[in-house]
Hints:
Helix content: 40-55%
Largest sheet: 7 strands, mixed
Shape: globular
Number of strands: 7
Number of helices: 8
Order of helices and strands: EHEHEHEHEHEHHEH
Strand order of the largest sheet: 3-2-1-4-6-5-7
Structural class: alpha/beta
Distance between the termini: 35 Å
Oligomer: single chain
Amino acid sequence: MVVVIPAYEPNEELENLVSELNCMNYRIVIVNDGSSPDKNVIFERLKDKAMILHHTVNYGKGRAIKTALHYILENMPEESGVVTVDADGQHQSNDIVSVCQSLRYHNEKLILGVRKFEGKVPLRSRFGNAVTRAVFSLTSGKKLRDTQTGLRAFRTELIPFMLNIKGDRYEYEMNMLIAAKEYQIPIEEFPIQTIYLANNESSHFNPFIDSIRIYKVFFKFMLSS
């Protein structure tokens, strides 16, 4: 199993996560998605614990995931599965392990680590996910509890399919769900902890620009349907 971590302006949470995953013998591919030079020290400390790939500029989360998938396809053909993980500490190592185990029992499916959105959840996160859940349900006919989760797992045979999905930024993850529905790839939801560190201040999601990109995905899907 290969852990893919797209990272833009990471902090010590990334180092903590990598250390925990190393103890569990996961192979790790991190994509530095055009972070500022002062973050090089973090990637330098991690180079012996993970494969570090670099973008010279910030292309976006979707492109970073695709860069990692290209690398896995060409250099790690023996691996059975891929799990994508956020770099900001939202995903705990025990939840990552549970999602990977779920893939072993449901290897024909796209596994989503879904949050319950209970307790102290930032308003923009709670509202944004509620809206995208509702719109996804209306446009696709399928109900999901968490359409914006970055914790996802799938078998390596699906990498070519994932590489053909459009989108370079956060809309890529929504396109993935729509493509899975269109091509009849089953989706399995696995409950995980809901964690927002420091009110999710480390998130690079732009509520205005990135939301427009996501809703354009729905609009195009409705037109094509």
